[in-house]
Amino acid sequence: MPKKITPAEQVERHDCPKCQAPAGSPCRTGAGKVAASYHTGRFALVPALKAELTVKTPADRQPGKAWTQGAPVAQAPEGKPGAAIRLGYARCSTVGQELQSQLDALAGAQCTRVFSEKISTRVKERPELEKALALAREIRQAAPGQAVILTVVEMKRLARNAAELMSLSATLQADGIQLELLSGPLTGVYDPNGAGAIVFAVLAVSAEVEREGIREKTLEGLDAAARKGNHGGRPTVVDDDKLAAARVRHAKGESVTAIAKALGISRATLYRHIGESA
User: Fold this and answer.
1) Are residues 67 and 26 in contact, defined by beta-carbon separation less than 8 angstroms?
2) Are 260 and 266 in contact (CB under 8 A)?
3) Predicted TM-score (pTM) above 0.70
4) Contact (CB, 8 A) for 92 and 102
């Protein structure tokens, strides 16, 4: 009965594109030790292992010990690209919002790995999105013929406005990463090159139009409320009675600190209302 070839043996048929470990040798860390796991870009070269998240280095290769080069072996011929690898990304704006519905949808789309975060659209840096893009690049660099798809439930999870969406489009195009939308009017998978580039432009315009529409409706609502005497915002903490009492006490020489404490307001608020300098 022929010996079963282990995932580690399949991985070591290839040179590592990250640490330059030659075929027949384990991967190594930056400190020159044997890595505990093979680098993603290396085992992605094996079609059967493309969907794996990690491939451990065998104990007999002595992970954590000083790295030594193994015996050279013949490199395996290039395998045909397997099915597309989907990397999911989920985001919601606040701690109070739930991510589970997005995570369920991404699991249903058979995403190999899902990156998620709770972060406002006002925050430009999105660490988990950057991690997803970095992994997609790593896979593409290791296996240029392998299709990699960034999957999201809806377009608004990716960017705040047209400028950000176009910037992301340029990134995906440069790295050869496809985009998949699971809901909305443009549901489907789009390649940022060729005809897909037009769709990215449409996505950007529609995102900006939607944002402007929301802004316009908000301003109209505020204007309508103002005409009815409702100006919104926080109610003032200093009414006419408090202000009159404060002025009388201040004219009698009482300190601003004492007046503010008695009226239950801050010194800064009192200074602002009686026109004094700090």
Assistant:
1) yes
2) yes
3) no
4) yes
